[in-house]
Amino acid sequence: MTLPFEVGLVVRDLELMECFYRDAIGCRAERRSCVPASVGGPAGLGGELVVVWLRVPSGGCVKLVLPRSAPVSAHAAPWSAGRPGLSYLTFHLDDMDPVVAALPAAGARPLSDPVVVPARGRRISFWVDPEGNTVELVDERGGDSSVRHSN
């Protein structure tokens, strides 16, 4: 491997999702590109795409992909342990509390009650982003969460 890992997320509303991952999660918009159908078609991507690269502070990248020739219309089902394919994106944070506090206003909803759960010396929190993708937050600090609200 020569670069940090990247993941592509197909979206319906590029602006909404870019704001969510930038403002609530803390990713940095790096670049935006239109992939023409002459490239996207032969590459197996279905045709023309708009792609936004969001750099994760730790070095990885989330690519938001908006298909132009075949708009995404189906709503994603909430996370299920039995569902094949990509289940969730995990973000490791020094302090998840400010992120957890910002997520509801950014259009996310928690998947657990309590929202932050102690797990093996860490704290974890699972959320659904505005388009139904599951996001896991991990805070290595462990112990009890200072954010104490329910769904």
List the helices and strands and how they pair.
Elements: E1 6-10, H1 14-24, E2 28-35, H2 37-40, E3 49-55, E4 61-67, E5 88-93, H3 97-102, E6 109-110, E7 117-119, E8 122-128, E9 134-139
Parallel strand pairs: 1-4, 5-9
Antiparallel strand pairs: 2-3, 3-4, 6-8, 7-8, 8-9
Structural descriptors:
151 residues, alpha+beta, 5-stranded mixed sheet, 4-stranded mixed sheet, 3 helices, disordered C terminus
Taking the sheet with the most strands, its summary is: 5 strands, mixed
What is the 3D form?
Answer: elongated
Helix and strand pattern: EHEHEEEHEEEE
Distance between the termini: 40 Å
Number of strands: 9
Number of helices: 3
Helical proportion?
10-25%
Radius of gyration: 16 Å
User: What is the multimeric organization of the chains shown?
Assistant: single chain
Low-confidence stretches: 147-151
Question: In what range is the share of β-strand residues?
Answer: 25-35%
- The averaged pLDDT comes out at 85
Structural class: alpha+beta
Protein model, in words:
By secondary structure, the protein is of the alpha+beta class. 14% of the residues lie in helices and 34% in strands. It is elongated and about 50 Å long.
Summarize the structure.
By secondary structure, the chain is an alpha+beta fold.
